[in-house]
Specification:
333 residues, alpha/beta, D-Maltodextrin-Binding Protein, domain 2, 5-stranded mixed β-sheet, 13 strands
Amino acid sequence: MNRALRLIAILALVAAFAAVPAFTQEWKPDHTITVVVPWPAGGASDTVGRMLAGLMEQYMGQRMVIVNAPGGAGAIGTKEVWDKPHDGYTLTANATAGFVSYEILGTMEQTHRDWTFFLPIFTPNVICVKNESAIKTVDDLVAAMKAKPNGVVLASAGVGSSGHYAAELFKGATGVTYRHVPYAGGAPAVMAVASGEAEVVMQLSVEVAELLRSGKLRALAVSAKDGLTIEGVGFIPPVQKAIPSFPDYGSYFGIIAPANLPKNVQATYEAAFVKAAASQGVKDYAKTKGAMPVAIYGKEAAALVERLASKEAWILADAGAAKKSPALFNISR
């Protein structure tokens, strides 16, 4: 009888353990992780990606190497990442804005919902001209654009980039038009204005900070409603001071991975990101580049990108640049 009871107890214990889900095995990468930046070196995606990768690799236990693969307004390098195995060894560094534009422009089949985001930096757009330009204020810029319809040359990182979105918001709020000249990335677009090749740029604060400090560019206004202070430059007033209807706008940057990573891989990245985003390195980057430190990932990031899609996808559609309607992707206006 005692043996029978012991056998029953053992069988019950085995059954109980079998009913408990197995713990997810921790993922520890065993070789180098590649982070593809689909833009040239020196832009916001590149500098934020390098900063974040350098911090996260301290907790990942493996190097995270940046590879620049520009082209197609970021779509070429992003597709390269998607086509690799979704095992955690190939990621991308980019802005949230790109993942909305790719689906609308028809440059990728995947949508913003197919990715998971690790975002440590928010950066507003700064309206800049060459320091020697006769354009001194936002009102001067509006006047110049009205005096020369489609004549003022505006540089951006390409159709669907944050600088292009800002320009379209400016156009919508003022009724002006401009001549859009897309470049391979934010850095060359900014340099085009500093050299006099283009007249105005509305790229990101992290891309213009150094040229503002060196006196090669002059900031007219920033898209952040509270204005922006850049170390060594001073306070830049909000564009809303001159154009009250201009919306608060900017982009979030970080490292992005396919959303269908194995759960243990996702958990490892989340843990490393949380530690990196809280580090002094992110704070120092934000201070010197005129950006704002954040720590957005997981469900919060997915909800953020969905809200941004509702704004940015329809900007492209209203500008006549969209090849596919946002409505096809159930993106609300």
